[in-house]
Amino acid sequence: MNLAFRDVRHNLFRFLLTCFGLSLLLSVVLAMIGIYRGIVVDAMTVARNHGVDLWVVEAGSRGPFAEASRIPGDSREGIARLAGVAAAGSVTYQTVEADRFGKKIRLYVIGFEPGRPGSPTGITRGRAIGKSRFEMVADGSTGLKIGDTVKLGRTGFTVVGLTENQVASSGDPVAFITLPDAQKLQFELAPPAARVQQARGSEGASRDTVNAVVARLAPNASVEAVAETARRWRHLSALTQAEQERVLAESLVDRARRQIGMFTSILLLVSTVIIALIVYTMTMEKIRQIAMLKLIGAPDRTIVSMIVQQALALGLTGFVFGTLLIAAIKDHFPRRVVLEADSVLALGSIVVVVCLLASVLGVRAALKADPATALGS
Amino acid sequence: MAASGSEQALISLRGISKHFGEGETRIDALRDISLDVVPGEVVALRGPSGSGKTTLLNVIACILDPSGGRMSLDGELVYEGRWLRKDLRRLRLEKIGFIFQFHNLLPFLTATDNVALVLQLAGKTLQEAEARAGELLDYLEVGRRKSAFPAKLSGGEAQRVAIARALANRPRIILADEPTAALDSRRAQIAMDLLRKLAVDQQAAVMAVTHDEKIFDRFDRMFMLRDGKLEGVVRT
Predict the structure, then answer these.
(1) Fewest beta carbons within 10 Å, which of A322, B8, B21, B177?
(2) Chain centroid, CA A301 distance in Å
(3) Could you write out the DSSP letters of every residue in chain B?
């Protein structure tokens, strides 16, 4: 006869209520893990979606995401001519606040050369940009619809295509426009400022500047060799895709990772203490019954197993509730929450360990229970 | 002084003593207690508060170490200056049944399960345990309440279930701590009659700590304790 199960069944409502409370706590832990995973995925999304092998940036920079990078627009032609490079494209990146029905939306605007690496992938609705000016492919999370017009700078852009889940490391949704539009948006001076520059006799800096050149290599080309060749240009630096992802993971999201890691650790510690207190209280409520069990001859393993099983039942039920809860609401978070099976399983394993640790207090109290107390002495 | 019965005693104490503390703080809770209780006998431990009744019951229940003397239970020498068995819980499970002042039934188990639990702890299968529990509850005329939880049982019914639990493994020794204190006069008499019947039917020895005057006449003998010493034996 399973005493833990019988006890839980007899006090089912109270048990479920306790599990529900615990599930809220564990759902916050899962949410934190999911948010962290989301930050990593978001940080990698732009870099991965280009589907390139090589990033050519400004010399001495680890750009274009972790550090600023500006290189001449004609760099792409040089890179495209390198042996082993199948295709290359210039890209620019900038964050822009746009007006939509009087409401500000933040966009991570990528300027690209149509038909070259850096073009938007995974268009789920509408079409790719077909003409060179004033068209935009935006992520669905912007709330924009096909045909909407958004004003960026002094120019209105028409949304012609929509993508899904394309956001920057900051969580801002991505919008693609052509490179000339992006360069104009990023580098063209406002008319009054341009007039001041003209009055000073300055022609102004060249607008043909990009943040990076991305390259796709031929199947048998060595990425290291091509990167090494690109680095020979003194004004350029090159990172392989793997290096770019490492920079993103180690630099860009490292502080967020540590922050969330610390917060998650504290939450797990709080969960441990709470489970321990619940198990201890549940045990102390039964201490006379435990004393009676010892008196009538129940071995320690029967008593210990009752407490440990209840602690595990509590933790795992709370964990399952918590997982279901966070799975149900994760899409309503403002930023991406990624629940991966390995994270969920890892937390499940941690919950088991936490329950075992937490039951130590209860087990200790139970083992110390004096059977004489059942006799009323 | 030995207060002895005539046959092979189920409870046999010789010179049992128990003290707490040492030096100036030493308290002698039991001093040189010797007694025998034979099969079929129902005896009481009486005495004022602090006289050592519960301490003696705890010693016989093997949950309190005596400080000296010899003790045999069901013909087995279990203590002689030290415990002679390591598995005292197993000894209790096999040889001793307990009845408490308050029934002490597990609130999350039905009447049947409360009784069956003891049988399962002794190694019976669930089916065997439930069958025997059912028989016992029927025998104690509480069979119709076998599926009820303790909270739904009357005081008398709960005490009968507790008695069924105490008898489940057919122990030869039944120790009771104020078994009628929570019962009214009529139910107290019924419970004592039941214990007597069981003692005779199962040739068990029943020893109860009690202050309940209305059941004194239900005991064969009463051991009078005062200041830890066996002051006398009253035959009723």
Answers:
(1) B21
(2) 45
(3) -EE--SS--SEEEEEEEEEES-GGG-EEEEEEEEEEE-TT-EEEEE-STTSSHHHHHHHHTTSS--SEEEEEETTEEEEESSBS-S-HHHHHHHHEEEE-SS----TTS-HHHHHHHHHHHTT--HHHHHHHHHHHHHHTT-GGGTT--GGGS-HHHHHHHHHHHHHTT--SEEEEESTTTTS-HHHHHHHHHHHHHHHHHHT-EEEEE---GGGGGG-SEEEEEETTEEEEEEE-
User: Between chains, do A375 and B61 touch, taking CB under 8 Å as contact?
Assistant: yes
* Model ipTM value: 0.79
**If you average pLDDT over every residue of chain B, what do you get?**
87
CA B118 and chain centroid, separation: 15
In this structure, CATH architecture of domain B2-81+88-235: 3-Layer(aba) Sandwich (3.40)
User: What is the residue type of B144?
Assistant: R
Q: Which ranges of chain A have pLDDT less than 70?
A: 131-132, 188-191, 193-194, 197-198, 201-206, 376-377
Contact state of A1 with B126 under an 8 Å Cβ cutoff: yes
Same domain, A81 and A205: yes
Contact A297 B100 (CB under 8 A): no
Please count the structural domains in chain A: 2
pLDDT for the residue B4: 46
Which residues of chain B neighbour A7 with C-beta distances below 8 Å? 108
To the nearest whole Å, the CA of A7 is away from the closest chain B CA by 5
Q: What is the DSSP-derived secondary structure letter of residue A90?
A: E
Distance CA A71, CA A314 (A): 59
CB nearest B58 (choices: A1, A297, A372): A372
Cα separation, B7 vs A324, in Å, equals: 69
Question: How far, in Å, CA of A368 to CA of A357, rounded?
Answer: 18
Q: Yes or no: say if A132 and A104 are a contact pair by the CB < 8 Å rule.
A: no
> What's the domain range around A122?
71-210
Report the helix count and the strand count for chain A, using DSSP H and E: 11, 12
Are A8 and A318 within 8 A, CB to CB? Answer: no
Chain A nearest-CA residue for B94:
A297
Give the nearest chain B residue to A296 (CA atoms): B93
- Does residue A111 share a domain with residue A184? yes
- Model pLDDT for residues A84-114, shown as the tens digit of each residue: 888 999 999 988 888 777 778 889 999 998 8
How many whole angstroms separate alpha carbon A163 and alpha carbon A177?
A: 13
- Pair B104, B181: CB distance under 8 Å: no
Task: Give the residue from A210, A226, A247 where a domain finishes.
Answer: A210
How many CB atoms sit inside 10 A of residue A172's CB? Answer: 21
Q: Which chain B residues have a beta carbon less than 8 Å from that of A295?
A: 61, 63, 92, 98
pTM exceeds 0.80 for this model? no
Q: How close is the nearest chain B Cα to the Cα of A299, in Å?
A: 7
